[in-house]
Amino acid sequence: MNEQQLQARKYDEQDPLQSFRNEFHVTEETIYFDGNSLGLFSKRAEQAVSALMNSWKQYAIDGWSEGEHPWFYLSEELGKQSAHLVGAKANEVIITGSTTTNLHQLTATFFKPEGNRTKILADELNFPSDIYALKSQLRLKGLDPETHLVQVKSKDGNTLKTEDIIACMTDEIALVVLPGVLYRSGQILDMKKLTAAAHERGILIGFDLCHSIGAIPHELSDWNVDFAFWCTYKHLNGGPGSVGGLFVHKRHFGKHPGLAGWFSSAKDKQFDMEHTLSQAEDAGAYQIGTPHVLSAAPLLGSLQLFQEAGIEAIRKKSLLLTDYLMKLVDTELTDFGFHMANPRDEKSRGAHVFLEHPEAARICKALKADGVIPDFRTPNGIRLAPVALYNTFEEVWRMVQILKIIMEEKRYMQYENKRGVIA
Ligand SMILES: *Cc1c(COP(=O)(O)O)cnc(C)c1O
């Protein structure tokens, strides 16, 4: 064993979160650095799903009100358990829908074009689904997305400058929707400052937390963010298609849901079956229909792990992991034409490292063939996410050694430099 590997092992021994790796189904033969796309399956999540299925078996219809986690209140219960991750009051969060449907709901609720204020501000680097949703919401209001969706430009193609975003907050903007962490470069936006700037200008603001929830701490209530939404299958390890979440600041409680349904009701009124909605007095009002109970169940288990580890400790380890990875890339991979496109400083660095390379697509294929799971982002990006709850420093070290050999021996040349259907 060489000096570097010993060093990596020492970091693992000093890691206060090391025992959490045992909570997950990890395969020792592979190095999984794709937890920012789909988090790993935990044993707690497995137990939670199994318990939920048993409640169906045992109670049938009465499962809505009986058992350890009555399904009728499950979305609220999980909202409460997620609140610490976004820095919210328990009733400001609800587990419901998906990222995209929640964005539709929140835009339908909060985007009220009036007078001169008829535009939505987003950015040119955001995930396409958010942009499609915002454009279709504009069309529903009879507005032209070409003129009414303003997208902040990036100067370097990977990051956004706070002052450039603020400069776009004109008196024509009614609503701002931005990511908390950019999905490619992993840049953290200054949510607090952007929220204050939007409010000074009479603009509402919401954030997509897909890449930030479970990775970094948030203080949404204190920052006065108007709303937020996220998925739970990335850093939160809820499993494929697990139910998403949303936050609405308590000062907006009572606002009529843009997309209403019977699950928008106050719990005690819902079964009165009235044709006039008595909406819930909290974030629960932004639910629509019957919750996807089976897809929410894994969260009962996986959220326990976040409760136990604590988001501050997770962030601390995540920074150490990405710092170690960046240093190894700097020293071991200098001659191979990689460009590190994620922010390096701790304030704006999210939970992954983003390497650009013209051969990125086939380098990813070569990594996969050698047991490393990265993810490719078109046209030339490799995302590497060492996850605090289950990855190790030694895996970071091993991954860099594997990548170095791939580059030295040009082993990527045997693959086509083209992405797969899913990348
Ligand atoms: C993962 C992700 C999505 C996915 O949306 P779904 O509705 O869950 O399919 C949307 N936006 C961002 C920024 C993402 O990272």
Describe this structure in words.
It is a single chain. The protein is α/β, with parallel strands linked by helices and 423 residues long. The chain has two domains: 3-32 and 310-414, Aspartate Aminotransferase, domain 1; 47-308, Type I PLP-dependent aspartate aminotransferase-like (Major domain) (Aspartate Aminotransferase, domain 2, 3-Layer(aba) Sandwich), CATH 3.40.640. Helix content is 38%, strand content 12%. It has 14 helices and 13 strands. The protein has helices at residues 3-13, 43-59, 74-86, 99-110, 128-140, 145-148, 162-167, 191-200, 220-223, 267-270, 293-309, 311-332, 360-369, 393-408; strands at 31-32, 93-95, 119-123, 149-152, 173-179, 204-208, 227-230, 245-248, 339-340, 353-356, 372-373, 375-377, 381-384. Strand 12 and strand 13 form a beta hairpin. It is globular. Residues 98-100, 127, 129-130, 179, 183, 208, 210-211, 231 line the site of pyridoxal-5'-phosphate (PLP). The site of pyridoxal-5'-phosphate has 12 residues, from helix 4 and helix 5.
